[in-house]
Amino acid sequence: MAKLIICNICLFVFVLKQEVNENSLKRLNGYLENLQKPGFRSFKPTQLTFYVREREPNSSNVQEPFSASGFRAVSFTLHTRDLLSTVLDILNSCSLSTEHIQSLNVNSQPHKEAKSTVNRPIKWDKTYYSFTGFKDPEEELEQAQRVETTLLSWLDYNEASAVKKLKKSLPLRKELERLKIELSHELQLSDIRWQRSWGIAHRCSQLHSLGRLVQQRPEILENVKGRTVVFTDRSGMSAAGHIMLGTMDVHHHWTKIFERLPNYYKLQKRLLLLEDRISQLLGGIQVIYIEELQPLFTLEEYFETLNSFYNKLRDSRLPFHPRSLRGLQMILESDRYAPSLHELGHFMIPTVCDPAALQWFIFAKAQEARENLKRKEEMMITEKELINTSTERFSLDRLYKDPSVSSAQMIDCCKRLLEESLPYLQGMHLCISHFYSVLQDGDLCIPWNWKN
């Protein structure tokens, strides 16, 4: 039993470290891309943390935390403004060799000088090229350096790597689908989801853990029928009513969550009643919670937020006509101080908003909100149609988007994709995001505003 617990703990620690590394790699990728953008001058210092394997005790003066798991945490801040210095800083911070980089630096010195002299004895004035019609070598070099990554060039360069990773992941993908279907059927779940983009192997491991718990304690899982299970950073029940299983928690914590489900369901009924009371005080406007746009609240946290807002509204006695705002929607936000209207049609209301200011704002924006909601429905239909058309046109195995990509951005991206001929995408998994990347299981990520 002790060995099993230790194995589970080691697995969860490894997953956490890999997630930290993946997040740091994404931020590093963005920093390096900005370094290469022409005319980019605004650099915000970026602090990164990586877990690297221990090879031997570090004799340097830098104090780095070591662990018994075979990894050490390395933290550093990026603030350099050129690519070479940044790479050198990263390698030095991780105690990695920089000899090959230094040799490249030495070899590149003549090329740096060539940029100013273009390897010729005479440097002509710009007017010479304007008058003669000859091409300016310096200008051509600058234009070549300013060229941004294009979709076709990136796909051409990364297709082989993505195909290799995808083929390698196929057995695990089938295993993941099998486990998900079996557990959903056995527990009669509505769905199984993941909050983060963990790799296929990690997702399989999490489902295997849930499967073992089902075998060991089947009686505690009788109350999950019709629910959605979400693997995330913390355990409990979410504001949306989903059962959250923390990936860093052991079976003991998951067991407690399942045992507490009856109490969660009672609290959820109280929460729904509270939403109805707020709606009545605000003329019938519907209080909603949008997982993609709002922080991940637990049920208890969200109930306290609603309760505080309700008490403030009740004491203010705003004169809203009953059902005058039916059909409109609102979400509560704790990090805002002024109300606003989202492009998707819902009101974003701060929990600390002045009731009088709230009343004026809702009345002033009600018609615009209705128009935005209607446009949202149309956009969602269009988005779904374009995703289906693009999937069929390029013979994609899957086309999806990052939650941070809006429907308008997805529509624009798909329309432009359909104008291209992209044989590289056949059989691939394509994610529309904000950056270029090949994920560890072969999914291709491209920015929604890709260049052609």
TrEMBL record:
- Would you indicate the residue range of the signal peptide? 1-17
Q: Which controlled-vocabulary keywords does the entry list? A: Signal
- Keyword Signal on this protein? yes
Q: Which residues form the DUF4461 domain?
A: 149-451
What GO terms fall under cellular component here?
Answer: mitochondrion
Please indicate if the UniProt record lists Signal as a keyword. yes
| Stretches assigned to the DUF4460 domain | 18-96
* PANTHER family recorded: T-CELL ACTIVATION INHIBITOR, MITOCHONDRIAL
User: Could you tell me what this protein is called?
Assistant: T cell activation inhibitor, mitochondrial
Could you tell me which species this protein originates from? Taeniopygia guttata
Name of encoding gene: TCAIM
